Amino acid sequence: MVYFKHGKEGGRIFKKASNTLLEIIVIIAILGIVYAFTIPSHQKLIEKNKAEAANFNLLSIYNAERRYKLDNQNNQYFSCGGTCNINIINNALSTYINDKNFVYGIVLDGAQGFRATARRVGGNLCNGKVITVTGTNSNVVKGCAVW
Predict the structure, then answer these.
(1) Domains of the chain: which residue ranges?
(2) What's the CA gap between 66 and 138, in Å, rounded?
(3) What are residue 7's DSSP bridge partners?
(4) What pLDDT digit, counting tens, does each position of 119-129 carry?
């Protein structure tokens, strides 16, 4: 720090502290380096949170499918294809899912009963990867290492 004489009052000299331009540049550079190291872990954390929301949505679909089969006279699960409009799922299964990060689909699967999927759209880390739940159990299979 550099001290400058600021004035006199009653015979005493006051000094005002100020930072040099070089000190400010060094502090900004250090903060930039620290921020650069935290970006990847921050992106992974955001991706995990989005996948966790999709996980809960798939479990909601799983439970709604079980109810749908019990209420259906044909004793069948609901199906709308590999990719379907989330509004169709919400209306058919009486759920409220609102997710712009994943595209959902429900297909009939002879051995499993049904397979519900959530495919990641957008994002840099797991774009195109799929989370799956089947009708036999509520185990969720995640297709991206970050999740």
Answers:
(1) 2-142
(2) 11
(3) 14
(4) 999 888 899 99
